[in-house]
Each structure stands twice: as C-alpha cells, then as structure tokens.
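hey can u run this one w/ molybdenum atom bound, need the structure tokens asap thx
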Amino acid sequence: MSSKFDPRRRRFLGRGLAAASALLLSGCYDLTQKGWVRKTLVSAENLTRATQRAIAGRHTLAPEYSKADIAPVFRPNGTLNPGTDFYNALAANAFRDFRLEVTGLVDRPLKLSLADLRKMPARTQITRHDCVEGWSCIGQWKGVQLARILALAGPKDNARYVMFYCMDPMGDSDYGDDIRQVPFYYESLDLIEATHPQTILAYELNGKPLPVANGAPLRLRAERQLGYKQAKYVERIELVESFNHIQGGNGGYWEDQGYDWWGGI
Ligand SMILES: Nc1nc2c(c(=O)[nH]1)N[C@H]1C(S)=C(S)[C@@H](COP(=O)(O)O)O[C@H]1N2
Ligand SMILES: [Mo]
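ok here u go:
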C-alpha cells in the first residue's frame, strides 16, 4: 500500500476536501456556479482507488451529521419514477409484493421482502450526498447493512463485485413495445465498499418510507461514493467475479456513458 502513496496527491486532496466541506455546511446546495468545487469533485473522482484507500484507509467512515443539518426536502435526481407496469403494480400495493433477490456467486440465493429486511438489525445515518452535477444534500437514511445480507447469502471465494440492478429503464422513452431492449440503471461496488459499515440498503429517508422519487422501496447508500453510485429502485443484487459481460461492461449505467467506475470521494 505505501508504495502507492503519493504525498503530492495527499496535500491536494486534503486541501480540496477541507475547503469543500467548509462550504457545504448543511442542507442542499446548488454548486453549479462554483467551478472549482466541481473541479475538486471531478479530480477526486480521477484519483485511483488504490491511492484513495492508501490515504483514507479501507475502514474510514464518511462524515455523519446531526438532525439540524437535514435538508427539508432531499433533492431527487435522475429517474423520479420508473413508471413501468411492473413498478406501478408494486407501488400500488405499497411494495408488499416486492422481493429483493440475491443471486450469483453465493452459497444461498435469497429472496427478501421489505418485512424481512425491516426485521433485520438496522443502521441509521445522516450523511451528505454529492452529485457530480454540482449539488449536495444531507439526509437521514435507515436500512440494512449490505454486509449482513451478504453474510446471509454466503459469497463464494471467487466473488469480487456486487452488482445492483434497478427497476428504471434508461434512455429515450421511445422504446416501443419491447422494454427488454432498453438498458436499465445498474451499478456495482467491490467487496470492500460493499461490506463497509456505512453501506446500507435503505428503506427509509428522514424517518419515512423511501419516497418514489428517491428510489422506493429500496436503494443503495454507499456513503464514501458519489451520487451516481447510489443505485435507486434496487430489485436484484448479484455477486460476480467480473462485470465485463454485463451491459456495456463498465460496471454501471453512467460508467457505460463514460463516468469513472471508481466514484470514491
Ligand atoms: N436507479 C437509479 N439510480 C440512480 C439514478 C437513476 O437515475 N436511477 N441516478 C443517480 C444519481 S446521478 C444521483 S445524484 C442519485 C440521486 O438520488 P436522489 O434522487 O435520491 O437524489 O441517484 C443515483 N442513482
Ligand atoms: Mo448524480
């Protein structure tokens, strides 16, 4: 690890983050006018995963905030409602028929209802979401640590990544009759990020069931990662050895459009 350590990067990152966190005191901020903040976020994105972990350590916690810092409305972004027949039917029944599937390189594939997830020990965290489009927002999330779900499923030795498959179709609305031709939003984390204590599958935002606009009924919160990694509307997770064969092969919908797979902040 220390061979990857570059003190110049550390100084840059340290300064950038201190300045950015002094600015982003609380709530939702539109930072699109602040070009340097955006540059800081983008260059942080470009640091390699290994360098960031050498600096910050694999177990470092993202900052957590107090209730006073919570934004009155958590700004929604990207898909605001998947709007498919499948999703609408689930939503109409308050997601009682929703099942989270856990598949792939596991000893025990799982199907978990929201009631099953609510029975598991929960983690609540007040954190800041940073979108690369230049805004931040503080919210309180409650859910199940992904590490607990993975432990139930029993990852096989060759599992390296966790894929998150979402219920929202992406791209033009003009997909005609065949929704299977349309890419759906998806994301992935390596097992270090996936088993980090602040990586949860959240079913509540600010003390209420997750709103549709923010990913109901279940969304990922991986608090050391940028906004686009926070997959909403998650219906299946799959453990894989490699994601080269999945959709565009880059590990996520936005990654397939050119974003970095490593979205650490
Ligand atoms: N399924 C899905 N997940 C998604 C997105 C999306 O469009 N679809 N947008 C991503 C982006 S870019 C951001 S900033 C956050 C927005 O989360 P929010 O709507 O709760 O603010 O969700 C991320 N996860
Ligand atoms: Mo985003």
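DSSP finds eight helices and eleven strands in the chain. anyway lmk if its weird
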